């Protein structure tokens, strides 16, 4: 059983920043596409961004220019979120997918096999 653990969520004022992390001490994340998704109350889970095994990235329009995904080490990936807005409030999830997904398929939930428990991000106005 793969266990992914997200951390770093919390409460922040609009315009502030948070850095989320996803870790699994028993897995080398560089071998996978790593995706970040979020789900707000009453809404469907949506794509935020992803990085594939060769370093290629894709971001949702809502995240471009504000969010950055990075590989911190072999067992940890991060989502740096800047200029946060109230509409960014959601539970954020990391997930592992196939090592080399296309720009289009990186956005699709069905291409990710393992998911973390999520971490809450709340942005106040």
Description of the structure:
With 125 residues, the protein is an all-beta fold. It is 0% helix and 48% strand. It has no helices and eleven strands. It has strands at residues 5-7, 10-13, 18-23, 33-39, 46-51, 57-59, 67-73, 76-81, 90-97, 112-115, 119-124. The strands form two sheets. Strands 2, 4, 5, 6, 9, 10 and 11 form a seven-stranded mixed beta sheet that branches. A four-stranded antiparallel beta sheet has the order 1-3-8-7, with no helix packed on it.
Number of strands: 11
Class from helix and strand fractions:
mainly beta
The main sheet comes to: 7 strands, mixed
Question: Which consecutive residue ranges, at least 5 long each, have pLDDT under 50?
Answer: none
Helix share, percent: under 10%
Number of helices: 0
In short:
The chain has 125 residues and is mostly beta strands. Helices cover 0% and strands 48% of the residues. It has no helices and eleven strands.
Task: From the structure above, extract its key features.
globular; 125 residues; 7-stranded mixed sheet; mainly beta; 4-stranded antiparallel sheet; 11 strands
SSE topology sketch:
Elements: E1 5-7, E2 10-13, E3 18-23, E4 33-39, E5 46-51, E6 57-59, E7 67-73, E8 76-81, E9 90-97, E10 112-115, E11 119-124
Parallel strand pairs: 2-11
Antiparallel strand pairs: 1-3, 3-8, 4-5, 4-9, 5-6, 7-8, 9-10, 9-11
């Amino acid at each position: 059983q793969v266990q992914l653990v997200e951390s770093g969520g919390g409460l922040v004022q609009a315009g502030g920043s948070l850095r989320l992390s996803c870790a699994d001490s028993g897995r080398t994340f560089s071998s996978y596409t790593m995706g970040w998704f979020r789900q707000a109350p009453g809404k469907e889970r949506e794509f935020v961004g992803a990085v594939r095994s060769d370093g290629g990235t894709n971001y949702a329009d809502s995240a471009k220019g504000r969010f950055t995904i990075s590989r911190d080490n072999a067992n940890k990936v991060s989502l740096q979120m800047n200029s946060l807005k109230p509409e960014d409030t959601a539970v954020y999830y990391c997930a592992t997918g196939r090592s080399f997904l296309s720009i289009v398929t990186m956005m699709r939930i069905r291409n990710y096999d393992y998911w973390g428990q999520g971490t809450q991000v709340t942005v106040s106005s």
